[in-house]
Design brief:
Organism: Nocardioides luteus
CATH topology: Arc Repressor Mutant, subunit A
Largest sheet: none
Structural class: mainly alpha
CATH architecture: Orthogonal Bundle
Oligomer: single chain
Shape: elongated
Protein name: HTH araC/xylS-type domain-containing protein
Number of domains: 1
Keywords: DNA-binding, Transcription, Transcription regulation
Radius of gyration: 16 Å
Order of helices and strands: HHHHH
Pfam families: HTH_18
Length: 95
């Protein structure tokens, strides 16, 4: 964020306040939300394991991914069942 603030010629604190005023969330929360949105698409559209998806979107651990996913989506992410299993889709697969 300091780099973005420098480009905008404002302090990091001012940049953060203005960002939140305009977009309704802090720059950090925006980045987290975008990472989780991307992870939901990867979980839905690929066969990548959850750990690989977490690392792909820039989260450092499965624990961080799980906590952030739960905070933003409101439920835990579970891996989709194998294609031969006849169970309803998981919360991640429905998006």
């Amino acid at each position: 964020m300091p780099a973005l603030a420098r480009v905008a010629h404002v302090s990091p604190a001012h940049f953060s306040r203005r960002f939140k005023a305009v977009f309704g969330e802090t720059p950090h929360r925006y980045l987290q939300r975008r990472r989780i949105e991307r992870s939901m698409a990867l979980l839905r559209d690929t066969a990548l394991p959850v750990t690989e998806v977490a690392l792909t979107v820039g989260l450092s651990s499965l624990g961080t991914f799980s906590r952030t996913f739960r905070d933003i989506v409101g439920s835990r992410c579970r891996a989709a069942p194998p294609p031969t299993a006849r169970r309803p889709p998981t919360s991640c697969a429905t998006w």
